[in-house]
Amino acid sequence: MGLLKLLSYASLALFATGTAATSWTANPVNPPSVPLAVRTPYLSAWLPQGAGTSLAGAWPQFWTGSTLGWAGYVRVDGKTYTWLGDPVVPNLAPALATQKSMTYTSTQSTFVLSAGAVDLTVNFLSPVEASDLVKQSTPFSYMAITAKSNDGGSHSVQIYSDISGEWASGDTSQAIKWSTDTSSNVWTHQAQLQSPQVYTEYQDHTQYGAAYYSTQNSQSATWQTGQDTVVRAQFLNNGKLSNVGDTNYRAVSNNWPVFAFAHDLGSVGTSASSNTLYTVGHVRDPAIQYITAGNNLQDRSAYFWTKYNTVQSLISDFIGSYSTALSAANTFDNKVKNDASAISNNYYAVVALSIRQAIGATEITVSKNSDGTWNTNDVLMFMKEISSDGNVNTVDVIMPAWPVLLYLNPTWGKYLLLAVHDLGASYPKAIGHNAGNDEKMPLEECGNMLIMALSYTQKSNDLSLVKTYTKLLEQWTGYLVQEALIPASQISTDDFAGSLANQTNLAIKGVVGIKAMSMIEGLLGNTAAQQNYSSIASGYAPQILNFATANNHLELNYGAANTWGLSYNLYADKLLGTDVFPQSTFQMQTAWYNTVRNQYGVPLDTRHTYTKSDWQIWTAALVTDTTVRNNLIDSVYAYIADGKNNMPFSDWYDTESGASSGFRARPVVGGHLAILAL
Ligand SMILES: *[C@@H]1O[C@H](CO)[C@@H](O)[C@H](O)[C@H]1NC(C)=O
Ligand SMILES: *[C@@H]1O[C@H](CO)[C@@H](O)[C@H](O)[C@H]1NC(C)=O
């Protein structure tokens, strides 16, 4: 009781600190970085927040922190204000619009800014389309703007926005070319490298394909391409653009070419103007190079190509279906809000910030038949590890992210599992580790594969995965039977913490994996194997507890009395209903965590003060006491609210200082849905 009360005061105080630095209201909270356009590993634009950064006056950033030129002006009765980005034009200094509020949901980030007597509402929508492969694989996001008078009068309003060549290449010294298509009702600027390199990255940006910026030919639209200061000055001076393209193709940073549209909303009163709509995206084809049997390399494409022949037709449909996309997004966002708020409002704040980031690390792809038609029976999903490295479909990164896949659509999990294991060192090349230099964590990964295979099968009632791969799953189980009870010195997914023998948490994963295989054999009707694995698991569990229990908690490694750690792998025992460990183990760990909690949470283990947000929420999902659960959730909330970080959700941070320890924008934040996936 006392603790609960103390904690709610602490959260209030933190919330107050978080908002005190900003002059706007934030709902649910000012996060370290606000997702703006986040849909793929290469369409990932964020507004770094820190202690409080307005949409007006700071450049959006790629997830790595490099600048993405994305500017916006609004002219109100002849006076211009900046509402997006930090554009500087010599001798012309528009005022900054004043941010009044920032709201984020699972798919949207919405800013209200006042520009003199007019308020702008700027909505960034990055859809998550869990039941539609075409829509989910569409690498585009929306930005919709409405204006209305805030003083009762009517005002003349013009809106401007541009993107820079930074959306087309991570290397700003490289030459790009661009073009503008105004032949239909949807106008599109396209920018791409003059010398693209397929399947290649530069500092995590893709080095091939093209960036697209589009708008509708309505509201007296005008366009222009050219040097940033020239194009922006044209709008600042005239409130419209020249409809002229610059054809002096050059490097991204050589007199910074920008690609702009402007609209004249005419007279705007106290009811909101109709949407001024922009879409931004990046398309590359093929998307993924994939190794198949016999070491053949296959080119795979984003799934949307099964429906569209051209990017322009894709964009036309995408922009034309904005109201459908928005209402689908609102329905989805409300569902997440209802589900997560039923746990707590702080939990909702964490979950809503995590969904775009987790799914934005993935792409859904398809291959071609030999006759050139699409093979829609061959759908695979790919996930980039992001920031810790660029690996493709890292099993021990898919595992922490798994809950978001269960929550959204378990079939996406199957599309990922069909493409594993750990398919390559550098996205988008899923070409294997034929040199044998993959990172070895065999207990971790055998356990992960068995746990995810059963989890998918339980949620989908589809036996195809476990039927097709029974032999492989049995092989992995055989390894666990030999190695899980007394784990050799090896790393877990938390590789940064180092190698250690007899890690209790790895033994837990291993034995849950063995029991998972028992249940798989049961589903397949293999009663003898089911009973064999079940009796092995129930024989191991008490031995593990005996090796690992001291002073009312599980040790980090057997016999090390003063050590402990987050034994988050118990979550799998609960998720799957494997029931390998007795309720008393869960109760013991629950009581223990409450005694070792720092301001920003429970450390990962006794070797360091840092923790992982994903494992804290997994732990919150397995504890047996609601207060302890909420304490863990509130610790992660306090960390995103503390104003000390300005990067896309970093899952690795210090429990004493609340500062990030590295890692950013990783899909593992999908693990924050662990409670919802139960
Ligand atoms: C049980 O499984 C283990 C590990 O795969 C195997 O070595 C053993 O032969 C099996 N026992 C029976 C009775 O099937
Ligand atoms: C691991 O634990 C077992 C059981 O307590 C013990 O026999 C063994 O010596 C330990 N191994 C290491 C490397 O500490």
TrEMBL record:
Secretion signal, residue range per the UniProt entry: 1-21
InterPro entries associated with the record: Glutaminase_GtaA, GtaA_central, GtaA_N
Keywords: Signal
Pfam families cross-referenced by the UniProt entry: DUF5127, GtaA_6_Hairpin
Superkingdom as given in the UniProt entry: Eukaryota
Glutaminase A N-terminal domain ranges (all copies): 107-339
All copies of domain Glutaminase A central, residue ranges: 344-676
PANTHER family listed in its UniProt record: GLUTAMINASE A (PTHR31987:SF1), GLUTAMINASE A-RELATED (PTHR31987)
Protein name from the UniProt record: DUF1793-domain-containing protein
Lineage, broadest ranks: Eukaryota, Fungi, Dikarya, Basidiomycota, Agaricomycotina
